[in-house]
Amino acid sequence: MLDSLPSQVTINEVGPRDGFQNVAVFIPTGEKIAIVEQLIDAGLKNFELTSFVSPKAIPQLADAAELCRTILERHGDKINASALIPNLKGAQSAWEAGIREIACVISVSVSHNKANINRTHEESLAELAKIVDSLPGMKVRVDLATAFACPFEGWTSVDSVYDLTEKVARLGVKDIVLADTIGVATPNRVSRLSVGIRQAFPALNFGLHIHDTRGMGLANTLSGLMAGITTYETSIAGLGGCPFAPGAAGNTATEDLVNMLSGMNIATGVDLEKLIAVVGLVNQKVDAKTNSHMSQSKLYESLK
Ligand code: COA
Ligand code: ZN
């Protein structure tokens, strides 16, 4: 049953964005950069580095431009760097900081879209159209937040995800990430949406962004793999959570995902020992609780 899984997976490390955004105490920019550089050294290639959002909404990421410029200057040739944006202003600031790929966030649930970015769907889609038109050199993907459930409205209907996907695709977007923002999905729900949406939109690429609030992160990831999805967004040390989604907790930890995939002979290009060492740096520099499995597990020489 597991023989037909993808042989390779793309991991997008979102710790510097989703992870840090939920940390109250400001992490000095140099320390954020040191963590990213150690992640690059561990073999990670794809990063969501930060968000270009209002510093009033997320004070932690007010250093977005400086962080991006420094990382791109030092490592731009080795990594694919992206940043999250909520609007045209954010997209323009990202472009000026050297970013050439953005994740434009829109929540499937209208209430969360309003709480998160103060926009209706119509306003978000109009903003997306402006971004695509005014920055033709920018690769734009869309993160569909609350694709499985909303903290205000409950379960998200599959039809409402299809409906928004269709509207986004009409604007020329090809890459879409389905996010379980509050981490309440179970494998059956992941399977249903992932299988269905890939069949309904065969020309689009879908990724999964799964929070591990209820310990379902890896089970849901496996369900996504079985549905043929090969892009996963995870966070070092399992940091993460949307400050505008009550009850949201950390992402699936990157080191836990890498451990599962390497045990299943699915290539990631990441050195697990080096990755676990980064958790040590995160624990020193970031004022947040971390509790991933692999950061607490002995690495047995005989089980490599
Ligand atoms: N970057 C920096 N500042 C921005 C900005 C951006 N992308 N977009 C708007 N602003 C500033 C405006 O300049 C304005 O500043 P001022 O008060 O000094 O004049 C202020 O924010 C309000 O602008 P407005 O367009 O009216 O925004 P809003 O109050 O409707 O808020 C967002 C909308 C999108 C800016 C805000 O909700 C936000 O940044 N949300 C981010 C949410 C997030 O990151 N969630 C977690 C990730 S999913
Ligand atoms: Zn998230």
What can you tell me about this protein's structure?
There is one protein chain. This protein is an alpha/beta fold and 304 residues long. It is built from 11 helices and 10 strands. The strands form 2 sheets. Strands 1-2-3-4-5-8-9-10 form an 8-stranded parallel beta barrel, surrounded by 8 helices. Strand 2 (46-51), helix 3 and strand 3 (80-85) form a beta-alpha-beta unit. The protein is globular, with a radius of gyration of 18 Å. The protein starts with 9 loop residues before the first strand and ends in a 19-residue tail after the last helix.
Summarize the structure.
By secondary structure, the protein is an alpha/beta fold. The chain has eleven helices and ten strands. It has helices spanning 15-21, 29-41, 64-75, 88-96, 110-117, 121-134, 158-170, 187-200, 217-226, 254-263, 272-285; strands at residues 10-13, 46-51, 80-85, 101-107, 139-145, 149-150, 154-155, 175-180, 205-210, 231-234.
Strands of the largest sheet, in order across it?
1-2-3-4-5-8-9-10
The CATH topology: TIM Barrel
What level of helicity do the residues show?
A: 40-55%
Q: Unreliable stretches, pLDDT < 50, 5 or more residues?
A: none
Q: How confident is the prediction overall: mean pLDDT?
A: 97
Q: What is the count of β-strands?
A: 10
Fraction in beta strands? 15-25%
User: Structural class per helix/strand content?
Assistant: alpha/beta
The topology string of helices and strands comes to EHHEHEHEHHEEEHEHEHEHH
Roughly how many Å apart are the termini?
Answer: 24 Å
List the bound ligands: coenzyme A, zinc ion
Number of helices: 11
Instruction: State the fourth-level CATH superfamily.
Output: Aldolase class I
Summarize the main sheet.
8 strands, parallel, barrel
- CA radius of gyration is 18 Å
